[in-house]
Amino acid sequence: MPSPNPSQTAQPVEIRFDCQLAHGGPVCEVKNFRNIKELYFRMAEAIGVDVNKILFVTVNTEKCDMTKLLGGQIMFGDFLYCHVSAPTTTVINVQKVSQMFGLTITDNGNGQAFVKGKRAGSVVEHNDDILPGDAILSINDEVMIGKRHIDVARKLRDVPIGSMVQFVLQPPVRGFNMVGGRSKAKVSGDINKGGMTVRIKANGDAEVVEGDKPCKRSAIEIIDQMLEDYVGIRDRELSLSIYESGTKSSDSGSFLDTVTSAYPMFAFTDQFILDVWNIISDAESGVMPKKPT
């Protein structure tokens, strides 16, 4: 048997990215992390902060932009900005006036849930004491540190309408976003790895994979938006998991059974699941999906 051509032998891909404190500091390098927790530890070591002070990470912007959060995929060449907690906390009391509290919750994958957004028309929309990026330390004296965003959303959902809710929040450092901006001379990763990304899987592990096609990316984003509307969370990996369940289901009935058994905590309606099935079907057929109206 002929020996393999060395030039055709697959070489391990080095996972390497540049990172920096969002409010300014030297550009540092993190590489060859195996999961999201290890990425956070590597970034904390590189920039010289306690890992528990990193609230969240944005990609390619130093601003507190909730649309640019580190998610399930990182493109080679992306630049990571670490947003750390401010030294102060805020205590606010808000009355729950409807079943949907008005907050979109997500988490950083390393034990800290935080506010991703506020619904228009909600009781918290114009409350400047609670802002996107604020870490949720406790709700009604129950510690939220170490809990997933799903647990925090469930806690808020279980509060009776008409009751007061006390939040203890910790904001990120804000207001210094242009200090010590990104070094233009340094670009992380290998920008010639066409279409390749680092995917953070549902179990937190990192792997190098081919990037998703546009129809699939759009479908996952729509499912993520639907989850926000339905249960008040944003979770791209959950949306991806639901999408992949759809690709493995033979029909809408089996997809409904799979989703309802896998995620009973959400109590999805049949119509919600059917809408998601249609979105996945369109994407898999090469049709750009649209969000149901």
TrEMBL record:
User: Do you know which PANTHER family this protein is assigned to?
Assistant: GH21964P, RGS-GAIP INTERACTING PROTEIN GIPC
What organism does this protein naturally occur in?
Oikopleura dioica (Tunicate)
| Pfam families cross-referenced by the UniProt entry | GIPC1_GH1, GIPC1_GH2
- Gene3D superfamilies, per the entry: 2.30.42.10
Name assigned to this protein: PDZ domain-containing protein
So what family is this one in?
Belongs to the GIPC family.
Instruction: Report the domain of life of the source organism.
Output: Eukaryota
Where does the PDZ domain lie? 91-158
Task: State the InterPro entries in the record.
Answer: GH2_GIPC, GIPC1-3_GH1, GIPC1/2/3, PDZ, PDZ_sf
